[in-house]
Write a sequence for this structure.
């Protein structure tokens, strides 16, 4: 039928062109593929009256522009700008600093620019054909054939070529403007990458006849990472994503208007959600995701919790301060008290915490008189769970008992040591020799819950404080 004809045509074209596409694009010093800008770049000179002197005494020029390759503000007097008119209206505002422009020109001198441009045009043409001319049923057939019939070495090369083309093209789109969808060739290539990604994962979700077990993914997930996204403006993409999330996304499209679902929409349409890099989570590198999570966690306030931890009792203090989330003045309810079980269910107020004994002094209202008890955190629960949320939202400023150190160095040391001491507790965490990572145990007691909450507080504060921690958990936790 027509579906088979479409799929055969695309596969035949890819097989014929693949030897001409592999490793044809030059790579910069970071290993990311690059291609010339599609429009002519013009030399731009910053006026002399824009010359400034920095606090360190060095000269720079206030161009009010940033390089689209390195993302640094352009401070040289000379830079290279596009300014070409776009079909949708307006002008292209891509700029390159002199250093990046000269580095790219040196790279282009070592390869065939015509071959590189042809590779980009070919992949763009295939992507446009697949998404604009093939019906959804033909796309689904193409995905199946790529997943189960296309030879693995050729599939690996095809993924690498499409990733290279997309990586090289991303620097030439204006990712910080409202009309980012105007770069349709680029987004169609991203859509083709999504189809390849679906083909890569299809063997993991489908068990064919005669097979005893499901297959694994054809390639590792890292094969699809677009490292060129690190050259893009994270905040602009995060703002687009946040706006869509706050609005609940776009309204459901009518069937005859199409949409951005690659396997069901006809015609396929690049909508505002599809133009968010964060919507393509399988392609986004860790650094990009990490910055996005930092924006999610913000805005950063000045309301810190200054907490003291003993090195010799770091595990207990971490659970007490970060796991149970108690603070003086909170209302609590007594649970699990064995010596005086009649106290269970009664409510009181936290007074002081004895760090040496690991106990809270709790005042209970009995017969119009206050009576205090010394209780472990495990025998207390919050009356108002909002108190937990409020404490976890505040940044932690850790200090080590008996030491004068404070600041970023102490933060890094504390979060790394606290992470280590928590995962070494076999009661709360299980270690897998096969993947060499830790995971949650089956325990659901108050101490296990506090350990999980303390771990979340450590990871969350590390993200907000920009502290790198060892990857002690498997990939799904960070995805």
């Amino acid at each position: 039928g027509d579906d088979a004809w479409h799929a055969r045509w695309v596969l035949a074209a890819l097989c014929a062109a693949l030897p001409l596409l592999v490793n044809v694009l030059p790579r910069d010093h970071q290993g990311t593929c690059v291609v010339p800008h599609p429009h002519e770049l013009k030399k731009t000179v910053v006026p002399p009256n824009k010359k400034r002197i920095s606090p360190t005494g060095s000269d720079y020029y206030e161009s009010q522009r940033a390089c689209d390759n390195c993302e640094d503000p352009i401070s040289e007097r000379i830079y290279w700008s596009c300014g070409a008119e776009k079909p949708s209206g307006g002008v292209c505002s891509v700029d390159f600093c002199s250093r990046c422009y000269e580095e790219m020109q040196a790279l282009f001198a070592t390869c065939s620019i015509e071959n590189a441009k042809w590779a980009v045009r070919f992949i763009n043409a295939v992507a446009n054909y697949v998404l604009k001319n093939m019906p959804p049923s033909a796309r689904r057939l193409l995905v199946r054939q790529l997943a189960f019939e296309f030879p693995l070495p050729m599939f690996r090369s095809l993924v690498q070529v499409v990733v290279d083309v997309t990586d090289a093209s991303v620097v030439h789109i204006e990712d910080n403007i409202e009309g980012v969808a105007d770069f349709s060739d680029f987004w169609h290539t991203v859509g083709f990458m999504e189809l390849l990604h679906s083909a890569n994962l299809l063997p993991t979700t489908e068990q064919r006849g005669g097979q005893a077990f499901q297959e694994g993914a054809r390639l590792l997930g890292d094969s699809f990472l677009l490292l060129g996204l690190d050259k893009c403006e994270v905040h602009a993409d995060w703002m687009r994503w946040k706006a869509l999330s706050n609005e609940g996304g776009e309204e459901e499209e009518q069937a005859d208007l199409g949409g951005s679902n690659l396997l069901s929409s006809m015609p396929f349409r690049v909508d505002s959600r599809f133009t968010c890099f964060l919507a393509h989570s399988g392609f986004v590198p860790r650094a990009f995701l990490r910055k996005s999570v930092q924006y999610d966690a913000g805005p950063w306030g000045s309301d810190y919790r200054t907490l003291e931890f003993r090195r010799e009792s770091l595990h207990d203090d971490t659970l007490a301060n970060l796991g149970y989330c108690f603070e003086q003045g909170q209302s609590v309810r007594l649970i699990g008290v064995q010596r005086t079980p009649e106290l269970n269910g009664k409510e009181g107020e936290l007074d002081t915490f004895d760090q040496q004994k690991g106990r809270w002094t709790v005042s209970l209202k009995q017969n119009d008189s206050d009576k205090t008890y010394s209780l472990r955190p495990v025998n207390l629960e919050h009356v108002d769970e909002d108190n937990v949320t409020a404490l976890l939202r505040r940044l932690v400023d850790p200090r080590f008992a008996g030491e004068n150190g404070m600041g970023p160095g102490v933060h890094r040391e504390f979060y790394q040591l606290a992470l280590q001491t928590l995962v070494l507790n076999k009661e709360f965490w299980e270690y897998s020799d096969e993947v060499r990572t830790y995971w949650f145990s089956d325990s659901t007691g108050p101490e296990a819950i506090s350990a999980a909450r303390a771990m979340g507080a450590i990871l969350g504060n590390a993200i907000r404080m920009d502290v790198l921690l060892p990857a002690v958990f498997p990939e799904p936790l960070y995805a």
The longest strand covers residues 347-354. The longest helix spans residues 184-205.
